[in-house]
Amino acid sequence: MVRKAYAKINIGLDVLRRRADGYHEVRMIMQTIGLHDELQFTRAESGITLRLNRPDLSAGADNLVYRAAELMLETYGIPQGVCITLEKNIPMAAGLAGGSADAAATLKGLNDLFRIGATQEELRKLGVRLGADVPYCIMGGTALAEGIGEILTPLRNLPQCKVLIAKPNIDVSTAFVYRNLHVETREYHPDVDAQLRGIAGDNLPQVIQAMGNILELVTIPEYPVIEEIKQTMKQAGAMNAMMSGSGPTVFGLFQDETSMKRAYEAVCAGGLARDIVMTEFVTAEEMLQEQA
Length: 292
Prior knowledge:
This protein is 35% helix and 28% strand. It is of the alpha+beta class. It is globular. The relative contact order is 0.18.
């Protein structure tokens, strides 16, 4: 059994406050994109075996895929084991939820492999124990995420457009970004409500115009190349460009493939990115059809 684990971008990302438990309350518009890892699941007599195409990745209990498999087998009392092969394509430490997407695909894959019959809601409740983005990655498509990211409201599908993903040759610590955000002192907050109105009205220009990510206030001063990539994409024809998550990946949205390719060439020519991918939006319905 083979399952795809899709990356996500944040069309809008606001942080409301820091809670007493140390977590941050967020309000985000999430969107699945076509860039994906691929996982293959095979029944085994016992235990969990994880095989990777990246020798720099752990195949042990500190890997989210391993932890997701362990959680499913223990929660549902599965007496057998599983062998999982992970082909990693989503850049790591990139703000694209690659690890969370792999964990989500593992929960769904084992649910099907062992014919457990868990509902999506049940899998999402399990998923939040692995990470705040996992429940969204289980659902996919266009959604509003609140709480620490686990409270999800499905939204109308955004009109299709081309997406250029570019990750510079740096890694960003999510913990560092949130630790230095100091949200209580920030006057700027993205207009997520304007984006929600734009989505409800099928008005992509309104959604794109209101794009904003409060975490850029921390990450861009620390890593100016992020702003350089954004401006390069816009000058090449992007309708807008923004950092995804806590970074450092930048995505640009384009009306057509020609302008996206022009931006791709400009980012490459400037030597601004280590990983650069041309892709597009993926809907929740498309994810379900693929798994049928």
